Inverse folding.
């Protein structure tokens, strides 16, 4: 450790020490955010590449160590403004449990700290290694349903183009070779993000210019999307003429083609960087002797305060449990005490059809069978007495289909045209692996307000929380089975929808003393 300290130029020792201490404050104060980010890297293969981002960024900085050592550390007071803004954004994300905002703000705060303590000149010279840290943010799952459906449409079109008959229903297809399902993995988001990252890195290493980075990122993403599409179509073609059921084989083929494309990108980059007339920006700057004029330790202290203040406020705010929001146990055991749908309908506990939404750490998931004289309808309520860390109505992993026994075929919007309900409701078609297909209509209920859009439910809940109203929230879902077409289930579901005000009264009765 002492040896490493000695090789650092004298003018850089104190600024780098201040930077290390400030980043240590960031790690300690935002440890929960960092932990949740790493857990997402581990949980989803879409984000496995994130483990390589920080080591790559550090290696890139090490490659420029001689050039950077010739610069002079300068405090950058203006960087405190974006640092404060990102700290506030992090607080909003923390309060609303919007992890992508937390993670993005964390990375942005890290970059702002470096700029504030080491200066604009250093940040300009190390712009790519610093910007590369943005790939630490796990994002992209929101695009999976759309990409999954696009892949299914492309496969159906390709098979029909070569004369193979296809019955296409969302992500499920019937071919002469059997049933084919376009799984989440074939949305391709995992290889697209990794391809963009490698494309950006190849651009920087080959050309040394940031202005070409966006072009190469786009090129990497486009090549990977094209390759993934060919992969899916190839698997579908083979499946129609034989047996290819191993998910491991599918994944291996996908990553194998991805490796070939990325090897080609890196090879082109290597050829460019070795071209005789190549001129990069890796040449060293002027030999001016560095000095510490304009650098003061107070900058690091101010940065640490800006980090600690929102973190301490969040810790204090989120640790407070609302008063009197415990679910009334008698209503959990016997919902008909409050859920009075009148003499026309009967709501009771019956053996489940096997379907229920996958909502993590809900305080209650109530499954009821409602019969209003026609075919029975499943009414499922996922209820959160109050939102806290890891237990929120809108969070990663909450969905209407568990992805195992039930697969989402398609997602759309239904217009109920019923007074008191949102203009549109979430509509999903589910394929039961060992049961009849189901149609589901769902909406959110936050503190007595009915909301259809996921982002609106999150935003409204966050607004209420920030003004001191940490209120109960729930997902309400109505579902019925169908044989051929989803429209077959709509009349029965609409019959129960007409009693939505009584469902609302039931939700209010679960926690009556929230104000």
């Amino acid at each position: 450790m002492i040896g490493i300290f000695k090789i650092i130029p004298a003018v850089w020792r104190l600024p780098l020490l201040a930077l290390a201490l400030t980043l240590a404050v960031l790690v300690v104060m935002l440890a929960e955010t960092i932990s949740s980010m790493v857990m997402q890297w581990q949980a989803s293969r879409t984000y496995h590449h994130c483990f390589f981002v920080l080591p790559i960024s550090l290696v890139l900085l090490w490659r420029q160590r001689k050039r950077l050592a010739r610069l002079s550390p300068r405090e950058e007071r203006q960087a405190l403004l974006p640092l404060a803004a990102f700290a506030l954004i992090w607080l909003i994300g923390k309060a609303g449990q919007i992890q992508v905002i937390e993670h993005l703000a964390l990375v942005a705060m890290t970059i702002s700290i470096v700029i504030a303590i080491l200066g604009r000149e250093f940040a300009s010279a190390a712009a790519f290694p610093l910007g590369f840290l943005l790939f630490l943010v796990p994002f992209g799952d929101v695009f999976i349903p759309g990409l999954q459906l696009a892949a299914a449409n492309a496969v159906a079109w390709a098979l029909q183009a070569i004369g193979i008959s296809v019955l296409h229903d969302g992500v499920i297809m019937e071919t002469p070779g059997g049933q084919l399902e376009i799984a989440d993995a074939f949305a391709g988001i995992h290889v697209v993000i990794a391809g963009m990252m490698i494309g950006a890195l190849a651009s920087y290493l080959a050309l040394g210019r940031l202005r070409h980075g966006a072009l190469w990122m786009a090129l990497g993403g486009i090549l990977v999307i094209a390759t993934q599409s060919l992969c899916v179509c190839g698997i579908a073609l083979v499946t129609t003429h034989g047996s290819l059921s191993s998910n491991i084989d599918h994944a291996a083929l996908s990553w194998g083609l991805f490796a070939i494309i990325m090897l080609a990108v890196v090879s082109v980059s290597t050829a460019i960087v070795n071209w005789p007339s190549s001129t990069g920006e890796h040449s060293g700057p002027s030999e001016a002797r560095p000095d510490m004029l304009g650098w003061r330790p107070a900058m690091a202290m101010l940065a640490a305060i800006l980090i600690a203040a929102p973190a301490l406020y969040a810790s204090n705010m989120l640790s407070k449990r609302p008063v009197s929001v415990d679910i009334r146990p008698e209503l959990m055991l016997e919902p008909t005490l409050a859920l009075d749908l009148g003499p026309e309908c009967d709501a009771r506990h019956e053996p489940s059809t096997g379907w229920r939404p996958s909502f993590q750490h809900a305080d209650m998931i109530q499954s009821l069978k409602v019969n209003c004289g026609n075919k029975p309808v499943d009414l499922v309520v996922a209820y959160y007495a109050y939102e806290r860390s890891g237990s929120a109505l809108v969070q990663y992993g909450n969905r209407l289909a568990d992805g195992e026994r039930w697969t989402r075929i398609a997602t759309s919007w239904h217009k109920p045209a019923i007074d008191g309900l949102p203009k549109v409701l979430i509509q999903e078609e589910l394929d039961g692996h060992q049961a009849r297909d189901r149609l589901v209509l769902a909406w959110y209920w936050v503190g007595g307000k009915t909301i259809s859009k996921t982002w609106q439910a999150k935003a409204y809940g966050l607004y209420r929380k920030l003004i001191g109203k940490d209120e109960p929230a729930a997902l309400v879902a109505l579902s019925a089975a169908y044989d051929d077409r989803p429209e077959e289930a709509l009349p029965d579901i609409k019959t129960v929808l007409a009693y939505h005000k009584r469902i609302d009264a039931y939700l209010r009765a679960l926690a009556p003393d929230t104000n």
